Amino acid sequence: MVSCAALVPAVAAQDRPDNRFEAIVELTQAKMKEFSVPGVALGIFDQGRITTRALGVTNVEDPIPVNDHTVFPIASISKTFAATMVMRLVEQGKLDLKTPVRTYLPEFKVGDESVAKDVTAWNLLTHTAGWEGQVSSPERGPIRSATSSPP
Fold this sequence. Notes:
Elements: E1 10-12, H1 19-35, E2 39-46, E3 49-56, H2 77-91, H3 113-118, H4 121-125
């Protein structure tokens, strides 16, 4: 549920009363009801602690209660989370979109060494990193090189 869960012990929400977390739980429950969502797993990482809460069931056909270990397929929503976190780092001055990724992750590697050396966070976020494997059709535009810059 939370990618860093293995690094930091999870704390059940009831073990650490936090009005902010309870407000998030209440809002989540209201939205679950409004949008007919059968189950949700919440996880908040704050000041070195993870607080979790499992709500509802995995699905309506086979209603198994959601727990801290329930795996939900998140698909492309992870792109939104990753981009949001990257832009938060940009706002904080901790990351520059035009700087090569290796400045921050020296061990970054892909099949083409020249791409790995020059690729930037901008390239990764905009799918313009320059390596083979464009999934979209040609009418969506050519593959841009790893040195393509933000507009």
